Amino acid sequence: MPINIYTKQPFDDLSNEHIIPNFLGGRLQTREIVNGHTNQHFSRIDAALTESLKFFIVSLNARSHREPGDSPPSMQVSSPDGEKLIIDADGSTRAVPGSLDISFSEEGVHITGTPPNEMAVRKALERKAKQAGVVLDIDKSMDKIRHLLKPQLKPIPPIQFTTELWTTEPYRATAKIAFNLLGFRAPLIALQGEFDAVRKYILNGERPEKHLVEAAAIDIRTPEGKRIGPLDHLVLVRGDASSSQVRAIVVYFGLLAFVVKLGDCRLERGFSYSYRVDQLGGAARLDDAYDLALEVPSFEVLSARSDEQVLEAVHEQSGKLLLDVQEIHNNLWINSTVKRHWKAAFRGKSQGQLSEDEQMQFINELTHEIAVGLSHHFHEASRRRNEAASAELHAAGSDNGED
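The chain above was modelled as a monomer; its predicted structure follows.
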């Protein structure tokens, strides 16, 4: 009979537990480390981790844990200029729908606002005409304004990203990923009393005097990093026989990295276990030689940092990841924009061929939408180049002794 690595009690109600959660694309499961009750108990901290990583999951249209055709839910963000936007998982961003203002005059019907769809405009017109006692041909009116109701889709603009240290639950979920791998590969070690502190922290949130999870500067996206996807998740657990330390690293999206202090215990021999998964494609590997050779930063050194140093490290890693996410999201958005315009160009045509005029219209509308959508990024790239050039000139002037 298996023993629950968290309660240290035998159980017979077997329950599948993912090493890396399935919402992050994790496929590796075991029925030997927790029972159903404990598994259900962990749903809250897993949900908190999901919420902490939601921006990246939605922005990347990360489907690897879902059925084909299913997508992550949309989410709302704010651009630096205060514009409220909704990020959809199909690679597009749209304005938050707002109320419609409809009025009638001798010149005609006046409509302003941001409707969610065509049906919303139709219903608003019918309701307003009835209230005003105006006889209105709804179908004819909709035909006249339908071309104005094209969705205004664009890529993610520069986003205001507030760097905050995670609250208790996401840290507990991060520690759980590390302890799950230890319990899966070395259950007899995981059940030892030296791991009671991390066990109680994960299970009940009992925090010891010092943190058990520390943010770290680890980048597993590099070309020499034998990536299996553009943004991998990784968990690596290592036991060092010479120091008696058992430590782990957990990395989300190739950059958001944490070191976990699992415990200190006497080991007959050292060990390393790893599991890496591609968030976008679902590919995975267990105990790969490259992953097993990765360095685990010293937890003691990390825990000795000041709060300001920790915030600086988290901010730097988050900034790098945001640039990666925007690049991938832009590619998703361009692909979806091309498909949408292509589909619209052939809508209602019995033969799959466009006239010269239709081809020009297709090209003009497509290039205009892409150019407008990417204008934020063109301006930002230009600003960064100008700042870099100014810094180089300033540095050159300083080297020449100029004020």
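The chain has 13 helices and 13 strands.
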